[in-house]
Amino acid sequence: MYIERDSRKTTLGKEKQTSSEYLSKCLDILICYIVQELPHILDDILSALASVSGRKHPSTIQTKQLKACLPMIPVVLHLVTSQVFRPQIVTEEFLCSYGTILNFIKSIDSGETNLDGAVGQTASEELVKTVLSIFEAILQHPVLIMHYHLTVIDYILPPLISLVFSQNVEWRFFSLRLLSETTSVLVSHRVMAEERENFNSDNKLLCLIRESLLPQFEQILTDPDPVPAYALKLLVALTEYSSAFTRLVEENHLVSTIFQVILEHQDMLLGNTIQNAAALLNNLVSYNSSNMALLYEQGLVHHICNLLIETAALCLDADDKSNIKTANNLFLSLLGILHHTLIYTANIVRLTLQAQKAGIGGDTQAAEDLLLINKPLTDLISLLIQLQWTLPDLHPWLHLRPFWSMARKNT
């Protein structure tokens, strides 16, 4: 029976109208019955998993219960992916139950619970994959995540964050991708955006990320590809959401690791890792209270110069048009970093000059050192002038010329 297809059928003729209406009513009854039965199916699954939670060797009765209930997990996935069932079954109650199942998956992943002896290793691994796929299917419809954002944060994100540190590479990557995409949806949500101005230690999302994720985030950034790309994407979303996350990135000593990731991926300039790293650095330097001294110390100028020169070469390559859009977007992100860096430098120099003029001193040596550090950036002005005819989007950045001129004059 093809419920998806049949639910969209229309009457083809008057002679078939009565039959079609009858079948349509039958179909509606069947859909309603399945929707009503789903909570009972979930309860049976939760009961079976709860009975073996923390056990290494389930009993015969428990094994029989698992074998009867766990095959229904793919049915849940099928219902969630169905446009007929999804709007009716994805409710707050459903997401709470799903979060509980995800906690059992966390227990299985940690080795606290072992289902291999009961259902076999293959079935146990397939269970984890299918459960994660259920949330992946829900995530394809951001309106559901936004509507139930509190439930998602309370019940789903905690076990999902735990799975990000799984010893299983596939599950670790799958969980991180889901976490990254979920966070991007959550922080763009209107209600969450309204909380941004009052973002404090009581914010659940902040507490969750700060306490459960960031302390071990360096490990994730150094994982093999494509994990760093999604880790950086997560940081981009968080730092765009609130300056509090910018401080957390610095406090958890992630800046040096971010530059190390850039260095390791510089031969894949147009990959997602470099794109996300550039966006993250742009967020960091644009924050007024960022520790710019730390960024300079870790090689901000060196890395940005290299990336700008290499990206400019791609933008100017007339023979390769396939990646020109990606190269342009990366170049504009790098220009954003350059913009905030030069603004920061100009402000330091201006304050020093004002202090000298007022006869109250001023740390001229620090200002001079800063200008010397930035000299490689000011030396790029000829490259930007050349690129302004290639990249129309570059024109707004030409207002930076006065800063460049001042910097070059003082160096």
Low-confidence stretches: none
Spell out the helices and strands N to C: HHHHHHHHHHHHHHHHHHHHHHHHH
**Mean model confidence by pLDDT:** 86
Shape: elongated
In words, what does this structure look like?
- The structure is a single chain.
- This protein is mainly α and 411 residues long.
- It has a domain at 1-6 and 26-191.
- Helices cover 74% and strands 0% of the residues.
- The chain starts with a helix and ends with a helix.
- The model has no long low-confidence stretch (mean pLDDT 86).
Q: In short, what is this structure?
A:
By secondary structure, the chain is mainly alpha-helical.
List the topology elements.
Layout: H1 3-6, H2 17-52, H3 60-69, H4 73-81, H5 86-89, H6 92-110, H7 116-119, H8 121-139, H9 142-147, H10 149-163, H11 169-187, H12 190-195, H13 204-213, H14 217-221, H15 227-241, H16 243-251, H17 255-264, H18 272-286, H19 292-297, H20 300-316, H21 324-357, H22 364-373, H23 375-378, H24 381-387, H25 401-410
Helix pairs in contact: 2-3, 2-6, 4-8, 6-8, 6-10, 8-11, 10-11, 10-13, 11-15, 15-16, 15-18, 18-21, 20-21, 21-22, 21-25
